[in-house]
Amino acid sequence: MKKSVIFDMDGVLLDSVPLHYAAWQKTFADEGVVLDFDTYLEKVNGQPRSAGVSQVMPHLSPAEVMRVAENKQRYIRLLFSQTPPSVMPGVRELLTLLSSQGITLACASSSKNAPTMLTLTQIDGYFSAIISGHNVTRPKPDPQIFLLAANALDVDPADCVVIEDSIAGVRAAHKAGMYVIGLNTSKDAQVRQEASHHAEDLAHYEDIYTHILALSS
């Protein structure tokens, strides 16, 4: 029986992927590296900043990785201040419906900005637990972040549904022993192939809600 739903943030709850991609492009351009969207999906999306830097520029020293990661943080904060990300269509409706059924909710995001962004967009109150980059030591596809969320909710991992849009997140959720609904918001074909169930986005919240209820019965 599924008792809890764990959401990724960027590209799932918030329309922030274009902003993150732009920030990463600028960050790597400063280092003389051109970042295309396919490489972003494969090596950066869903990863902590330092892991993303290391994936794209594996020759950098730890100090250099930290420097580049801090540059990315500066760029994304600037973009967020200029154009704050909006809540994705269907998110508030789905969160409200799930909560009304007593299904506990968590957000599990590799971003250290997650608590702040959820508060700014006024959806933090839906979540019984928020696990962010501040809490994890091993990036997705390691299952640590989702296991921490299940522990914070006091539920068995097998009783959790994860909603993700990155292939690293899908694989992490599977490794945690969780059912995964993959969204097409990042346009990553691997998400569709490897998720337990697939949906275009949370604008189709009624179908997703019905599917989760069927898993919970």
Description:
With 217 residues, the protein is α/β, with parallel strands linked by helices. The protein is 48% helix and 12% strand. Helix 8 links the parallel strand 4 (160-164) and strand 5 (179-183). Helix 1 (17-29) packs across helix 4 (62-82). The N and C termini lie close together (6 Å).
Mean pLDDT: 94
Compute the separation of the termini in Å.
6 Å
- The tally of beta strands, per DSSP, is 6
Report the portion of residues in β strands. Answer: 5-15%
Could you list some keywords that capture this structure?
217 residues, 10 helices, DNA polymerase, domain 1, six-stranded parallel sheet, single chain, alpha/beta, globular, Rossmann fold
Describe the secondary-structure layout.
Layout: E1 4-7, H1 17-29, H2 37-44, H3 49-56, H4 62-82, H5 91-100, E2 104-108, H6 114-120, E3 129-131, H7 144-153, E4 160-164, H8 167-175, E5 179-183, H9 189-194, E6 197-199, H10 205-216
Parallel strand pairs: 1-2, 1-4, 2-3, 4-5, 5-6
Helix pairs in contact: 1-4, 3-4, 5-10
Briefly say what this structure is.
A 6-stranded parallel sheet has the order 3-2-1-4-5-6, sandwiched between helices. It has 217 residues and is of the alpha/beta class. It has helices at 17-29, 37-44, 49-56, 62-82, 91-100, 114-120, 144-153, 167-175, 189-194, 205-216, and strands spanning 4-7, 104-108, 129-131, 160-164, 179-183, 197-199.
